[in-house]
User: What shape does this take?
Amino acid sequence: MLQPGLYEQVINNALSNELSEIPEARKSTAPIDAAEASKVLAQYLTDVVQKGLENVQDNGGGIEAQIQLANQIVNTIQNTTQEADFASLGVDQRAEQLLALLRDNDPRLATGKSAKELERPETSIAQSSLFTGAIHEPQMYTELKKEIVSADRIDMLVSFIKWSGLRLIMDELRQFTQSGGELRIITTSYIDEYDVPVAKANNNGYYNEMLDVMKGLMQALKYNQALRFAVVTGCLKIAKESIFTGTNNFVSDTTTNLRLNEYFGFVQSEVDQLLKDADLTEQAENIKKWYDGYHFGDFDVYCPWDVMNYMLELQRNPKAKPISYWKNTSDNAIIRSFIDYAGSTITNKLETLMAGGCIVQRVDENLTYNYLHIRDTAKVLIILSISFLLVAAEDALTTAITFSALIAIMFIGIGLQKKRAVVAKRLSVKYGKLWVAAEVFLFVLVGATVNIGYLGKVGAKALLLIAGALVFRMLGVFVCLLGTSLSKKERLFAMMAYTPKATVQAAIGGIPLALGSACGDTVLTVAVLAIVLTAPLGAFAMDLSYKRLLKKE
Assistant: This one.
């Protein structure tokens, strides 16, 4: 029985009989458009022929009977049209399909491969397929891989092309083009937040390297003759870094450009329309109070991300309260750094803004990260200079009240780790590189200074002292690990790991000798002996025990 609704159905005899019993007021029919008749009737006959072939199979007929029926249809068309070309359209009795055909000069033939060895997609290339992402269905990107390597020409139409998706088929595309295939990609070019990698690089110590990468990326826009138009967006301009010098016809627009002020967010009319469409007009005042916080030129604009997320949440929960969605979308490290380094002037301005007031501030669009922050190498040199000055001051002061330069320097490091953990980590890497060279000089000088002759004088007493110090150090490590989640075996390994010590002994072992103390040679000899014994002893202990005491997680 026909159901009410809209149709585009060819009326056959069965449908005609059913329609004859329906009043004229309830049905609407129209003649088939002559210009579209071949397409309409062909689509209808497709279903009829398929149903007929399935009927032949259901009645016990094999592929031969189906081919016979198909050829009868072709013969009928030939007899009706009197076109001789239709005779060649009959299905061959061998019942085969052409699956692949290679060019005479195909490079794969030279390597001994044949057309039968071409990798084929699992889905049909002659009929449309729906990829649902189900477990037992082929993935779209794997099917693309197979189609790429077997194609001779690719025309790719992509709305937004992203590296995260392109990298999955990059090897196949490279193989395709190297084999002489013709590749054409029509897409939009949109680079969003180009400055984020630069900001991350600045925070993690590879700023200059990232600038080189960005310059290469931007230069690719210049020599790409297939590129018509590209859009690059970011929060910081960083124009002075010259990453855009390789591009042609580059136009930079910022929030200070009057012609684009209304496009940096939702204007009032757009928000009103959104609320009307979503049937949320009662939330207009609330949304304005929370998200109408930007003013560019003559326009007040809303934050689009906040507005859309809150409206979405209201669809799910009509009682939802507004929150700041935008603040969690990006890293605010650069803002935090400004606050941390802020003087009284900047602090007062920030407090004014937080209190709902306003300030007038000149905006410099040509700032660079090198201008905003001192390079890590310069920071290391500054700290080293301060350290040397502290040591010199300790030696120069002869007053009753003195201080320890070493302790002062240690507190510089502790304070840096506590207040600027990220910076401390980067500086630690820099100091590590300096220590590679300094360590060589330290041990060479210690070795050159020690008097081996004193080794016989210290004898067993020195060995007993070193053994006692090792035991005391291991007990100290054990006490420090009490209350931790480490197992007994892990604690034992940590105790052994603290036995090889050399740097401290080498650094302070020669101090008594340098001060002219009578025990200077003895202290230095014992220190060197401790290095010689504990360094290899601890290294061997860790190497032989870690497999039995530690487990991989």
